[in-house]
TrEMBL record:
Residues 26-41 have a biased composition (Basic and acidic residues). Its EC number is 1.-.-.-. Keywords: Oxidoreductase. The gene is yhxC. This is Uncharacterized oxidoreductase YhxC. It comes from Candidatus Filomicrobium marinum.
Amino acid sequence: MSPNVEPHPRQPIFRRSGEEPSLPGDETKLEPKPEWRPRYKGSDRLKGRVALITGADSGIGRAVAVLFAREGADIAFAYLCEDDDAEITKDAVQAEGRRVISFAGDLGNQQFCKDVADATISQFGKIDILVNNAGEQHPDKHLQDITEHQLRRTFQTNVFGMFFLTQAVLPHMKAGGSIINCTSVTMYAGSSSLLDYSSTKGAITAFTRSLSENLVGKGIRVNGVAPGPIWTPLNPSGGATKEKLEHFGESTPMGRPGQPNEVAPSFLFLACEDSSYMSGQVLHPNGGTIVGS
C-alpha cells in the first residue's frame, strides 16, 4: 500500500461472526487456478496511460490489470485485504515493464476512495482510465434470509464504492478518459439466489448509462461489462452455494464457466481508442447467453 494512504478499518465489516468467514477469497488457494494471463502480445493500445482498477488483486481485476500493463498502461489498484494475491498482481504488472501501486482498504469508505485517487495522482500525475470492478455477493434462497446488514454491505461495496471512487477520480480525468463499470449477466437474466447482488448490478447499469449522458459532452466515455459465470474467488468463497459450484457455468450455451482472461479484452476494448464512438454501452462476455440490451 502506498505510504500516502492510511489503512482503513475493514475486517470487522467484512468478516462477520459465523457468516462466510472466507470472503472475499484467496486466489492462491483456489483449485483449479483461474486463467488470468493475457493470451496475445500487446500492441501499445494504452501506451502512456494510467489506469486505476478496483478488485485487481485477483480474478477479473487482475486479468484486466495485467492486460492493460501489456498494452502499455501504468497501473494503480485497490483491493480489500488479500495481500498475497495483490503481490502476485504487482509482480505480473512489473513483469510487463510497467509501474504499479496498490492500496488495501474498504471501497465503501468514501475517505479511502478519495485517498486512493489522490495518491494515484501523486504517484503517476494523472488517471486516464477508471475500472470499477470490485464487488461482493452472498447466496440466499429466500428474500427473508437477507439481513439488513448484508443488504447495506452489498450495496455499500458494489454501488456506494463505485460512486465514491468515481466522484474522487473525475476532477482528475480529462477529455479522452474512459470509465468502465462491471455489471453482470444477473442484471439482465436475474438470479433467484442473488437477489441483493443482482439489484446492485441493475443499479450499476443504470449508473453507467446515466453517467455516460452526464459526461459525454466532456469527452469522457462511460461503458460497462456484464460477465456471465466466471471462475474467480468470488464464487467458491461465498458467492455460490455448494450445489451451484458443482455445475458452475454449465447452464450457459457454451456449457462451461468463463476465465478472467476471456473477460479482460472487453475492458481493454472499452478503455482504448478502438471504442471511440461508444458510450453508455454494455458488453456481454457470458458464454453465449442472449440477454436484452
